[in-house]
UniProtKB/TrEMBL annotation:
It comes from Cyprinus carpio (Common carp). This is WW domain containing oxidoreductase. The lineage of its organism: Eukaryota, Metazoa, Chordata, Craniata, Vertebrata. The keyword Plastid does not apply. Gene3D superfamilies: NAD(P)-binding Rossmann-like Domain. One of its GO terms (molecular function) is oxidoreductase activity. It comes from the Eukaryota. Belongs to the short-chain dehydrogenases/reductases (SDR) family.
């Protein structure tokens, strides 16, 4: 049985790159990997009910959207060409997808005893997620004394697992 699945893989501030599938790397790692894993495990989760999926997202999802100027969902924003790429925006969009995915997954799976939540672990700077951009590394270094430790950041997803 599988009672708890925590989806927490992420990269940030990566240079533009395409995966062998032809998709932008940040989007594939931060969102599509989770999506694919959960799709593969849906039947196992249903048969293991009660079960829970926790998707670790970020408050940064608030700084983007997925619509064009007419208000239509623009899927090409998820895997933009190099000339339109900004690493932080790619991260923000992937984290927005995490939340939308978690909400839809909860709608579909809760009747089968599988609860789904997305969460922001809080501000913490004890990670190397920013390693590809020197400015973020500098910012994280100065902000570190005012943020959560890795242990405190870890505790929040774990508390959702136990609810």
């Amino acid at each position: 049985p599988l009672h708890i699945l925590v989806c927490n893989a992420a990269v940030c501030t990566q240079p533009w790159n395409l995966t062998e599938d032809g998709l932008e790397t940040t989007f594939q790692i931060c969102h599509l990997g989770h999506f694919h894993l959960v799709q593969l495990l849906q039947d196992v989760l249903r048969h293991s009910a009660p079960a829970r999926v926790v998707v670790v997202s970020s408050e940064s999802h608030r700084f983007t959207d997925l619509v064009d100027s007419c208000g239509k969902v623009e899927l090409k924003l998820l895997s933009p060409p190099q000339k339109e790429y900004w690493s932080m925006l790619a991260y923000n969009r992937a984290k927005l997808c995490n939340i939308l995915f978690s909400n839809e997954l909860h709608r579909r799976m809760s009747p089968h005893g599988v609860t789904c939540n997305a969460l922001h672990p809080g501000n913490m700077m004890y990670t190397s997620i920013h390693r590809s951009w020197w400015l973020m590394t500098l910012l994280f270094t100065f902000a570190r004394p005012f943020t959560k430790s890795m242990v405190r950041a870890r505790d929040y997803p774990l508390s959702l697992d136990l609810v």
